[in-house]
Amino acid sequence: MSTKDKPYGVLAEFDNPADLMDAASAVNKAGYKQFDTHSPFPIHGMDDAMGLKPSKLGWIVLVHGLIGLMGGVALQVWSMDIAYPVHISGKPYLNFPAFVPVTFALVILLSAFGTFFGLFKMNKLPRLHNPLFNSDRIAKATDDSFFISIQATDPIFAEKKTIEFLKEIGATHTEIIPES
Amino acid sequence: MSQNTAIESDTRLVKGDHDFASITKLITDIPQERTPLWWYIAFGISNVLLAVMLAMVVWLVYQGIGVWGLNNPVGWGWDITNFVWWVGIGHAGTLISAILFLFRQGWRTAINRFAEAMTIFAVMCAGLFPAIHVGRLWTIYWIFPLPNSMQLWPNFNSPLLWDVFAVFTYLVVSTLFWYVGLVPDLATMRDKVKGKISRLVYGTFALGWTGGNRQWQHYEKAYMILAGLATPLVLSVHTIVSFDFAVSIIPGWHTTIFPPYFVAGAVFSGFAMVLSLMIITRKLYKLEDIMTVDHIEKMNIIILVTGNMVGFAYAMEFFIAWYGGVEYEKFAFINRAFGPYAWAYWIMVTCNVVAPQFFWVKKFRRNIALTFALSIVINIGMWFERFVITVTSLAQDFLPSSWGYFSPTYVDVLTYVGTFGLFFTLFLLFLRFLPMVAISEVKGVMPQADPAYYRSQNGNSKSTR
After folding, report:
1. The model's pTM
2. Which among A24, A108, A141 has CB closest to B211?
3. What ipTM goes with this model?
4. Do B153 and A80 touch (CB under 8 A)?
5. A123, A150, A172, best to mutate vs chain B, most B CBs in 10 Å
6. Residue A37 lies in a domain
7. Largest CA distance in chain A
8. With 0-12 CB in 10 A as exposed, 13-18 as middle and 19+ as buried, what is B293?
């Protein structure tokens, strides 16, 4: 990907969720695109501060739900009416009310799969290694600390300038993360 | 958030003087510390019971369904009773994790992980019974719509088949929901554990989570969607379980009140089970700051509400049996209360309708010993409810010449007791190796998690660290 001397990016630590939110807002306004904030829990309002578009996950789920719906109806209509119609206590072959529970269960099942795999697909997980973990401090992002990372691939990234900028907006600690 | 400290200390969800780091430490230390002695003892007992269960299942498969007390006319006995009971217990976990999430009940964060684990293990115990009650376990795959040499398909008109789909979907969705919730906490474990192997294992299951907001954004969306999917699902599962009975024409089963009545009963028994487990666990692991008396009180209110719904349903069944004017239906209900199974009926009424009435009084709702005792009583009562429904209607239906009386055999009893071995084996492993409280969610409901907390002039100026 990149040459050895080129870093992966920079990591800046902040004191609390409020400082992180202000900083994220500033980083966004400064024009950075490839940055992320790291926190032990989701912070309300952070999506707007970072200028993120709403998650498209719902559409993925909708598609899966529709597949479940059509698959469920098709399965039952085909097996009960076409493949091998069996006369059962005078009930019609195409007994739609009786098909509702299974169809419903399949809609939920497929939607849940869509949500689950869609989530990890959109988060680009699972991921065996992330250069971010080269930092010792990032481990605290799952405990009680708050970070902003800016990637070196960002068009307006410039090592010294970016670090200075992060310090200006209140970072208590900054570091350069090597690519490997 | 509140300016008045006195009020604040009353409404805070996490008691004691905690910051983010101390919450992390409190939960992540549990899997890292030395395994306590009581754990080995409890695990040993559970393993013995699990072995008993397996032995009984093997005996059943080898010998046939005759080793249970089933015969004509009672073809469903303890097996279906236990199935409905275990599935019902599972429902509280989904109610806490999904429905209370949609209602924005912050207090659920302390117990949702725990209750969801209970759900998954309870559904596993439940699933065992329908699987083995088919008798020829080796042809169990016939219940799935798989292409086969006979070109036959399962009968989609049958509620029993709907049940297969509903329970299977329920198990899968509950597991996915649970795992999605676990990922950020597994990342916390990954970052906390010392050992290389444990770091690798937790790290693998954490999938590379960095706590980035670009991940949290989709995560929160996914969590909400899963909650939205699990909510109708959990209501539908026990509805469909009740269809197993209600769609038949047996007096006492063929009633339209069954779906809501079963769902209320499921939530009722499930909350009782969560309380039984939680009251012991919070003591053993010293989690009283997170699972507080406030939580117990709120759960007792839900028990009171659902208990009265169940009591109302008992009364309504009687009323409709009389009002409907069907001879057999009237007999079925009078026979339940005063026939050969009257003892079971009155145990059910005492445990499910009378016992929860204590919780009208605030003092009793906040009394931990009483809550524990009543939670056990309620679970016994709910087991009897399912027994009464399943067995009394079958034992004495239309023709007096074909009446009978059901008595369980030792295989019935030991299989049921054995499922506790399965349940507690899994549950103890969960307590030992996984973060039993949703760490990230508990942090999220602390006042320090809100950026506004730091901006308010009146806010506590103490740093979070």
Report:
1. 0.92
2. A141
3. 0.92
4. yes
5. A123
6. yes
7. 81
8. middle
